[in-house]
From TrEMBL:
<dbReference type="InterPro" id="IPR014358">
    <property type="entry name" value="Enoyl-ACP_Rdtase_NADH"/>
</dbReference>
<protein>
    <recommendedName>
        <fullName>Enoyl-[acyl-carrier-protein] reductase [NADH]</fullName>
        <ecNumber>1.3.1.9</ecNumber>
    </recommendedName>
</protein>
<keyword id="KW-0275">Fatty acid biosynthesis</keyword>
<keyword id="KW-0276">Fatty acid metabolism</keyword>
<keyword id="KW-0520">NAD</keyword>
<dbReference type="InterPro" id="IPR036291">
    <property type="entry name" value="NAD(P)-bd_dom_sf"/>
</dbReference>
<dbReference type="InterPro" id="IPR002347">
    <property type="entry name" value="SDR_fam"/>
</dbReference>
<keyword id="KW-0444">Lipid biosynthesis</keyword>
<comment type="pathway">
    <text>Lipid metabolism; fatty acid biosynthesis.</text>
</comment>
<dbReference type="Pfam" id="PF13561">
    <property type="entry name" value="adh_short_C2"/>
</dbReference>
<keyword id="KW-0560">Oxidoreductase</keyword>
<comment type="similarity">
    <text>Belongs to the short-chain dehydrogenases/reductases (SDR) family. FabI subfamily.</text>
</comment>
<keyword id="KW-0443">Lipid metabolism</keyword>
């Protein structure tokens, strides 16, 4: 029996087979969780439907987190399938491309700063709030994805690093707020993985090479590496862990 047997998980952020959310869905399914999925727009709908079929799910809901009405509708629709659920996976981030090229100030505008924070950080809090009534009192778990650029100034990550710092602080405030209801909130800080989102970051291939040469494990991580830790953190095996950022980065963050 898998360690997520009897748990229901809503997984956001599948944009392709390479998406980190796909690795998470696979591990959670393997461990026995029942899954539901969201897709950002019509272009991604069929891909997410295909993933849902692969993972034995018929629940596929539209959700663009930029739209309050869609956030509300998503949980209303989910309520028609499930009276409650246990796991919320937030694997969503976005910054306008010009904001993650060149130096931090090159692409800095009030609008780019706001968009990056809105989609990448506020959306976690907004979803946690909307999911509240369905997750309370079930030993639920909320998980998001962050990156080392939240803590260190990394070339080209720019406003996304500032938004990830906001996301990590949001994890702590949510954990403090939702702890009394039994809901845990954590983040995985993943090492670089070649996904659609990563392709937008200037010099990404160089970053992968640098990690392969210098990380303690001398390799980059896979979506399977991240998926396994995500499944653990969202399971009762991690019942004492909340408000944490767990690194799944082949150890890269510890080196000087
Ligand atoms: O190296 C990496 N790939 C790392 C990614 C290292 C560390 C962390 N992460 C994070 C990302 O910042 C993100 O939070 O992991 C999370 C998942 O990212 P991913 O798996 O790398 O990227 P991808 O497969 O592109 O999925 C992210 C998806 C979007 O994809 P695109 O590429 O179409 O922007 O986030 C979704 C969208 O599907 N997304 C949204 N979903 C709902 N509403 C929105 C939105 N407004 N915007 C983006």
């Amino acid at each position: 029996m898998g360690f997520l047997q009897g748990k229901r998980a809503l997984v956001t952020g599948i944009a392709s087979q390479r998406s980190i959310a796909n690795g998470i869905a696979e591990a959670m399914r393997r461990e026995g969780a029942e899954l539901a999925f969201t897709y950002q727009n019509d272009k991604l709908k069929s891909r997410v439907e295909a993933a849902a079929t692969e993972y034995g799910s018929e629940i596929v809901l539209p959700l663009d987190v930029a739209d309050d009405a869609q956030i509300a509708a998503c949980f209303e629709q989910l309520g028609k399938h499930w009276d409650g659920f246990d796991i919320l996976v937030h694997a969503i981030a976005y910054a306008p491309r010009e904001a993650i090229a060149g130096q931090f100030l090159d692409g800095l505008t009030r609008e780019n700063f706001a968009i990056a924070h809105d989609i990448s950080a506020y959306s976690l809090a907004a979803m946690a709030k909307a999911a509240g009534p369905m997750m309370a009192g079930r030993n639920g778990s909320i998980l998001t994805l962050t990156y080392l650029g939240a803590e260190r100034a990394l070339a080209g990550y720019n406003v996304m690093g500032v938004a990830k710092a906001s996301l990590e602080a949001t994890v702590r405030y949510l954990a403090y707020n939702l702890g009394p209801e039994g809901t845990r909130v954590n983040a995985i800080s993943a090492g670089p993985i070649k996904t659609l989102a990563a392709a937008g970051i200037a010099g990404f291939r160089k970053i992968l090479g640098h990690v392969e040469e210098n990380a303690p494990l001398r390799r980059t991580v896979t979506i399977e590496d991240v998926g396994n830790v995500a499944a653990f953190l969202c399971s009762d095996l991690a019942s004492g862990v909340t408000g944490e950022v767990t690194y799944v980065d082949a150890g890269y963050n510890i080196i000087g």
